[in-house]
């Protein structure tokens, strides 16, 4: 089972991409299909909020914003019974659109994973910060880790493009290489991100100053595993700035609102997940947001949008787009 790009999709995608490079626009939108969540993470407050209304379909939103890619997020997206329909409608209405989904994995069965994939998903990302019950404890979902480690290899073996989203925290520095290795042995990719405390003001998991040497060694180890195993999709550009973020509490150069935005379940536009609502998607225009000097996070989505487009990055991204379902040796830079 494979979603290989058709020639027509390659042409349309290539035209859209070079248009993006020439005149700008949105590289990605983080589309929250729900704010509801069945986890109770102490580093996130979404589950405490009264969830807004949810649109039944997001084709009109994506057509208005016209991004190259869409990341379906939450809350927990799998709480939506119509998620397959949402994905299918997006897939059928665009000549080229890369669609990824981020889930905590608790509601992910093998059967539903296949249904989501067959609806038109390009990447299924599952949050995983530990290989033991600490992951259950932080999410407040008993048995979560065991379930993820059971269902994810089955889906990967069936041809689904599975990726673990791993957040680097002060208590999992020794676990990250183990996750990468475990995933590589089972045909699963890994994307790294950094713990952010700005919105919740919870520094419980922030890497401490006395851990900087260990963090620097971890970054070096990740790069080695990336070249050896080929399943780490995080760029060196992003990895190199992780220690800077934890040391300084920020990384400059954010492009949120310029080449990526956040969309709430009811179709409202935000610069990013940590900023307030600006307007309805119907009012979107390219100059809606001025450049920002905010440097308070170093999320992986921000890093991907902010990283400069070099020739090597172009090759790397093209390789992942054309061959996303099998592990390959990563391009080094």
Biggest sheet layout: 9 strands, mixed
If you consult CATH, what is the topology?
Answer: TIM Barrel
* Secondary-structure content class: alpha/beta
Q: Quaternary state, please?
A: single chain
CATH superfamily: Aldolase class I
> Helical segment tally?
12
Radius of gyration: 19 Å
Strand order of the largest sheet: 6-5-4-3-2-1-7-8-9
Beta-strand percentage? Answer: 5-15%
Low-confidence stretches: 325-333
Between the first and last Cα atoms, what is the distance in angstroms?
30 Å
- Gross morphology: globular
Arithmetic mean of pLDDT: 92
Architecture, CATH level 2? Alpha-Beta Barrel
Task: Explain the overall architecture.
This protein has 333 residues and is an alpha/beta fold. It has a single domain (7-322), classed as TIM Barrel (Alpha-Beta Barrel). Helices cover 37% and strands 14% of the residues. It has helices at 7-23, 59-65, 83-92, 110-119, 134-139, 144-157, 176-184, 212-229, 236-240, 242-248, 300-306, 311-322; strands at residues 28-32, 69-73, 98-103, 123-127, 162-168, 189-194, 260-263, 268-270, 277-280. Strands 6-5-4-3-2-1-7-8-9 form a nine-stranded mixed β-sheet, with helices on both faces. The longest helix is centred in the middle third of the chain and has 18 residues, at 212-229.
